[in-house]
């Protein structure tokens, strides 16, 4: 993982994150100063950021909103203090509303990001300073250490480009933190077509089948926040296995980029998960990322042991072949 350390200094009221990336400072700098690239890693998994304002000049302002999986939002605003291309970026960071009006009840910090050549690439150090120990403890108590670690570990995919990051790797499952699982798969097709394949029942029935020898017997979806869905499968004659299905609710819809749902195994008392599907397109290829939130690490490991990743790969391979043949 790129993040090598996250430390706090109670005496200096500061939090420092250090990360190493296999790219030159000029390339890493672009990721931090292009809002479209910055959006792909500034928010932690499950809370992607969207920058509505970005004025990269001393005294300029930036305003961003992070969108949670249940529709919750958290906004912030920066004022740029120092801009030294490829070397240092410094700004104040304050909680705000979506328009950038500062929330006076929340801590204001000063962020200094330095980009230093090192090893095979760049060492990034993010120093965040607060006015008081209480402010530092408040932000740490809100999950800043885990959240910033997961956020900055997403930057690799941005720096490499999605083909270099995911092409030829098939379906990858990566545990994050104590309760999350991130699943990625590159598909050689535009995002709009991949989105339709995930949201139109007639298309889903053709590829969302898992291993060969299964058929989808139910595919019902109300595609709006609060809408319900139900999927079911059964083995074909001569194939071992028992029929099963999932049901749940749509929590968030951002066409054609993001779909967040709950997922529950029909007819069981198993706890539901939250499945956050996100799509990113570059040069005609789409990276599919599904972030699954489990109730605990034990449940996550139990599900992984069922061979879920292999089943998903069979489905995604079928999807890619189908899209290539359209």
Q: Major sheet: order of its strands?
A: 1-2-8-7-6-5-4-3
| Coarse structural class | alpha+beta
Q: Could you tell me the number of beta strands?
A: 16
Q: In one word, what is the shape?
A: elongated
For the sheet with most strands, the description reads: 8 strands, antiparallel
Using only C-alpha atoms, the radius of gyration works out to 21 Å
Q: What tags apply to this protein structure?
A:
2 domains, 8-stranded antiparallel sheet, elongated, single chain, Alpha-D-Glucose-1,6-Bisphosphate, Chain A, domain 4, 326 residues, 10 helices, alpha+beta, 16 strands, 25% helix
Describe the structure.
This protein is an alpha+beta fold and 326 residues long. It has two domains: 3-160, Alpha-D-Glucose-1,6-Bisphosphate, Chain A, domain 4, CATH 3.30.530.20; 164-324, Alpha-D-Glucose-1,6-Bisphosphate, Chain A, domain 4, CATH 3.30.530.20. Helix content is 25%, strand content 42%. It has ten helices and 16 strands. It has helices at residues 25-33, 35-38, 133-141, 144-152, 155-160, 162-166, 191-199, 201-207, 297-304, 308-324, and strands spanning 3-9, 14-21, 49-54, 61-67, 73-84, 88-96, 108-118, 121-130, 172-176, 180-187, 214-221, 228-235, 244-254, 258-265, 273-282, 285-293. The strands form two sheets. Strands 1-2-8-7-6-5-4-3 form an eight-stranded antiparallel sheet. β11 and β12 (228-235) form a beta hairpin. α7 (191-199) crosses α8 (201-207). The relative contact order is 0.13.
